[in-house]
Design goal:
Four copies of one chain form a homotetramer. Chain A is α/β, with parallel strands linked by helices. Chain A is built from 15 helices and 13 strands. In chain A, β6, α6 and β7 form a beta-alpha-beta unit. In chain A, α1 packs across α15, α7 crosses α11 and α9 packs across α14. Chain A is globular. Chains in contact: A-B, A-C, A-D, B-C, B-D, C-D.
Chain lengths: 384, 384, 384, 384
């Protein structure tokens, strides 16, 4: 019988990581892929991914509205609870042979619990990584609920096994985000005029002069400080004086504060060299990273994809603590002066060398291979 | 400021394990205990614990109706989802400094997620144990979400640390279930006539002649087989010929099947030596275990408390696989003949020696001590 | 395009009323019927209707687990809330052209709200009746949310129109429960030995000697009194001295109390002439009503179907206040002596004449006709 | 015993209407007011009312996060479902003697169901009004669930009674929105510079020259057309050539479309005479209405408060169909030319005469009086 593989996408950036394996799976006639779009991935405010999914030729099997608005801590919990209620009904209808989740967003535990409790084998992508905040609790809890582990690196594999997982259930596939980076490297041209394509607000400028890219998300364990933290980065970027493309944060506890900080800066007329974007397909996003002088903030893209692409990255604060780093990254605290200095020095060095720490660009194929062929079991036991 | 400690009880047997620490905490004036009763602990059908709690002199701070009826896999998931939604509101109102959960029942993840996502430090009792089914997924996921680990044994501590937890956050307190056993040992007399006190259906008999105690729960990863499994035990107990006290199963995926098996056996007039009980306070339950010739089934009580009390136990099937065993336990599969033989041989040997594998009876005090004094943090990171 | 008609069944007795229209609809090739089983209709404890549905040759399009256990007031509310969350997903997947709900059970408002809020036309069966308790709030709120009204009688039609509904949207179809009664009248033979067919507990007796049938549900607006109320009826029936077939109550706030009253009476050995049934297909239930000396309690069956069948009915308490009555009914309060006297006198009179107050047995066809052909609109306005 | 009155506010505009009765109640020492803030009333994106509530000196007794994001039809349903789940817990904790809800927003049914199902008397403000869309279904369903009706006018009273409610339970109190209007009439001065006080985006202009005020909400029964509809109004206002203050729409199915229409118009640089506000306290809002040349759109404020204030109003489309109108209103369809013409002609006529159709400004006191003194019952029956 054809194996049914259900992939649950709960946010725009997760789709980017699932995409290469989804396309590989969709091209196979011997498996049935079931695509579930959930949470913020369906919402305009966070960049509804339906048009991207349609452009990729993929069919959506279920849509799950589960985001309880509030962007604070209590609604993260409630969203997860509602997600379990909704996803259990979806799995009951789709009857998948395996459910796939990814990484460490808070609501991914809804997928893991719904699948586990219904005795459906669970595959988890990107386990065994260290990041040091609430995401880490989520990531490793996902590992303990998962039956199949598709990890980015040998280091990650080692950690998953040390946590007591059966070595036979852990597969090093590389990180799927590197697949996008590899595609972009082969196809570095933007699809058109950036500002026409993706709108946004703020001044437009030439991408041929040096410019920065900024992504800074709230840190959930530092709730209440997101407003101040974004302020520091805004001041530093302003002081550097380079034009910048700034991206709105993910929906998360604290994102309201971050957004408010950005809006105020803008309304005070201080964002005169900053163009704000809501979101962008991951490939075009990486294309502009490649063209940029450097990426600033606390996005994992700066650590992962940019290490492969050799783009200088200034990583601010604790959000990426513990994550394995390539040579493209320098770390700095929440201090405007320190951030400014780090940007100026690091950017001046120019491109960093390629680093294959997170994979070689074939993770999608490798993940698909495991999902199609690995034995599926739900009974597991601590291996010590 | 007085530390506020919220204890979430989601089922009758969990209350038995929380009881000694709750009583210790309640006697302290320097902390504030917040008792939350949730799930099946509030339902008559599963032995509403409100009267026991009131008799213990404890005040209930919140009641949470979260059990989605169905006793199947999908409702386990939905109950957990609803639990998160409800418990996050409770924590928002009670504002505890630390939330306490226990063991591995499926709905305990609702407590863990609600607390973690709201940045409230989470203490988990009975982590690091190995049992080999869905409960194990839940138990270790609880460990990965918890900030403080109160474990039953050195073995358990070792496993929690190997899973990557900070050794400073792991405390060996003994298993609180042994506290009840120790009390019972000091006070072995029943509070009155068993059958008058706890009703139930079926013949009454003298507890001075040899009799068996049976508890057999459905195994969630063997969903669909609970009916057959209980059948085997019924046949074996019938063949042994001793009178028996039989306890209805916990609410769990499959408990409908188990209950149906019991009812049918009874309605066919075959349960002529069996008295069925719905439930009983944990102390009187242990008192009759001590008086019994042996305990049969797959309850963890037979492994834990009975090892301390030296009561022979015949453990059936996979539910307790991997759990550390004392000398009082023999294991057997789902086979009527094998079960019958094991009961006859093992019971003939009489009492087993005391085993302090799971503690010495002071776990409640030790747990309370840690909850009152341990530093509370929410940031954690894999320790490798 | 084929009209898609979604029928939402939330409880065993509702299925009985939907059945004749469902069978009519299923036989039509020009419409698509979508059957949604929800709430207690899926639970063994309340008489899972899946086997009946399968025996009727109907396909189930969705199953909705929504019952929050507790049988108290707060869980009635929570069940309705969860029902809305679940049913909105079901309607989103099934995309019906019209959704059908029935009568006044509390959880029917979940169906009505989910459909209305999603701009799906809502048809409501059995509006415009007067019963005098919480059910009445629910029934008339359903009317105000519904776009199409399929009522049992001219009186009911008049009331729906007086409430401000457009007369063109109100159709007198008769009560579908009379359809079952008419079938039974044509086919009065039981399918076999009653006690073998439907099990239950308590003594068996010949159905050729006079016997009573008892159904008494808790009254939700008299919460806390259900235990006392059932006690009175138990005493009265005992005093009458006729053997009796007693049916367990619906799941509702208070049903735990009612059940406990029944169980205690039985465990005290006082139910020596009473056989208890959990449930029965509606047709066999009506067959035994026809054979009985009379029906006692507060079920609407005694008022509706029994008026058509001419079975004497003793109606106890307020639950059916205001409902139109045929000549077969006498009313009495919660007083053991009064109940006993009413049973003795009324039963002595023998069969009552047929009364077509609630229809002639063709409601299923008439309802199906309206659902298939009536214009479907969602905009409505108070007609005054 | 002191009567406990729980008022549930689910949105910013509702607070404005509750305010005068809340202040009257809060000043009384013989009752206890319990204020529950829920839904969008807590969200920055829709104008969090916490600061206003605090400035009014009121204490918040519970906060309920219940808004499932999506602003489409399915999330309206899910929000209501989640609201029932949450509010039933709140009522269980607060134990009010009466719960108060208002008007016809979709999520008000969550309040009504939670209260009704828990046998708590329900008071409904603003029943018996005719508006002609989904709101009307909600409003009249609220009436059928409510035990106490506090209506704005004799016409409304008449309709509520015709719907079958007991005349003794219906009180004409006037519309509380007129209380704000009366305060404003007595105190017409703005608290400061409008643009400084309330920010917003777009050009600032003198309020001493003629200007328009625009509020246009999506119509839920015309889902999918909100974008086109707002377009027509934008074009018309642009053609009139007067400067305008434009307010973002309520959160509702379709509000995303409306917001997108506004944003696009603005980003195309066509909103050169329009200043956009997110929200404003109701009193200052009415102050600028009084200063304006007229109010355009489909807000009920234009019909109610503006009739009392004598402000010319151009009402567009079906949203206010059936609502009683004063002399200040002209109606027009979704046609840019027709809207433009209506604005030009109507505004030229200047102020309209005062109309007390909706009350005289003392509704808050009258409502408080009824809530404090009216007998509270939960049993009700259709009065025909």
């Amino acid at each position: 019988m054809t194996r049914k593989i259900a992939v649950v996408v709960t946010a725009r950036p997760s789709y980017g990581r699932f995409r290469s394996s989804l396309l590989t799976l969709a091209a196979r006639t011997d498996v049935q892929t079931q695509l579930v779009l959930a949470g913020s991935s369906l919402l305009d405010r966070y960049g509804n991914i339906e048009p991207i999914v349609a452009a990729d030729g993929l069919k959506v099997d279920a849509r799950v509205h589960m985001l309880v608005e509030g962007e604070n801590l209590i609604t993260s919990a409630k969203t997860t609870g509602l997600g379990i209620i909704e996803l259990s009904s979806v799995f009951s209808a789709l009857k998948p042979d395996v459910v796939v989740t990814i990484a460490d967003r808070y609501e991914t535990l809804a997928t893991s619990i719904a699948a586990s409790y219904m005795n459906i084998p669970l595959a988890h992508i990107q386990g065994g990584e260290v990041t040091g905040n609430i995401d880490e609790k989520v990531r490793h809890a996902n590992t303990k609920l998962a039956d199949l582990h598709l990890v980015a690196s040998e280091n990650a594999r080692d950690r998953v096994i040390r946590m007591g997982e059966n070595p036979e259930s852990v597969f090093v596939t590389g990180c799927p985000s590197i697949d996008i980076a590899a595609d972009v490297l082969a196809n570095p041209g933007l699809k058109g005029d950036l500002f026409k394509l993706y709108g946004g607000v703020g001044p437009e400028f030439s991408l041929d002069t040096p410019f920065l890219i900024i992504l800074q998300h709230p840190v959930t364990t530092e709730f209440g400080q997101a407003g101040l933290q974004i302020q520091k980065t805004l001041e530093a970027v302003d002081a550097v004086g380079l034009p910048a493309l700034w991206f709105w944060p993910n929906v998360d506890a604290g994102s309201d504060e971050t957004s408010k900080g950005l809006r105020q800066f803008r309304e005070q007329g201080r964002a005169k060299r900053i163009h704000f974007f809501k979101n962008m397909p991951p490939d075009d996003f990486l294309r502009i990273c490649m063209k940029s002088a450097g990426v600033v903030g606390n996005s994992s893209v700066a650590i992962r994809e940019c290490s492969f692409l050799g783009v200088p990255a200034v990583n601010i604060g604790s959000r990426q603590d513990g994550r394995d780093r390539g040579q493209n990254v320098v770390d700095v605290g929440y201090d405007a002066d320190a951030i400014r200095g780090a940007i100026q020095r690091h950017v001046a060095n120019g491109k960093s060398p390629r680093d294959c720490l997170y994979g070689r660009g074939d993770a999608g194929e490798r993940i698909a291979e495991v999902l199609i062929n690995a034995p599926l079991r739900i009974a597991k036991r601590l291996q010590y």
